[in-house]
Write a structure and sequence with these properties.
This protein is mainly beta. Helices cover about 0% and strands about 45% of the residues. It has no helices and 18 strands. Strand 1 (about 5-10) and strand 2 form a beta hairpin. It is rod-shaped and about 95 Å long. The N and C termini lie far apart (about 90 Å). The relative contact order is 0.07.
């Protein structure tokens, strides 16, 4: 039996491919130039399915490039329903908070300040500051600017 032009070997029908010529990828017994959405090229020979909830993946089934809704892509090429506490969600991906934010709601709004700095920073509204304004003090436990209970400067 003569196989279709993309099939190197076939079975039962000329379009039911078992192997493909170099440069083609076998997916569902078809030889394709690229894998379909939800598949990745394995050993440059076959298309294998991505693991759920990856929408697209690369190299291995669980190394996600994009995620199915409502999942979002974290920094480690994983899909999750929510970002890590040190990340914020933007355009379906999780992005790392910028120093000195330890946790944040966006690129410029901190929820907490990091302890991993030589100079402690205190949370004031949504910013991390080196010193608190007059009438407030820097609480070294919570890393927040708090109102003075007694007159202070």
């Amino acid at each position: 039996m003569q196989c279709s032009s993309n099939c190197k070997t076939c079975n039962q029908q000329s379009t039911y491919c078992l192997t493909c010529y170099t440069g083609m990828l076998l997916q569902n017994n078809l030889c394709l130039t690229n894998c379909s959405l939800g598949y990745f090229a394995f050993n440059n020979e076959k298309c294998r399915p991505c693991s759920y909830p990856c929408q697209t993946c690369v190299d291995i089934s669980s190394k996600c490039l994009t995620c199915v809704d409502p999942y979002i892509l974290t920094g480690e090429n994983k899909c999750s329903l929510q970002c890590l506490s040190s990340q914020y969600k933007q355009n379906g991906s999780c992005l790392n908070c910028q120093n000195p934010c330890d946790s944040c709601i966006d690129a410029t709004s901190c929820l907490s300040c990091t302890r991993n700095t030589t100079v402690l920073k205190y949370l004031l509204n949504v910013s991390c500051v080196a010193s608190c304004p007059k009438g407030m003090y820097g609480d070294s436990l919570s890393l927040k600017c708090k109102s003075c209970l007694y007159p202070c400067s």
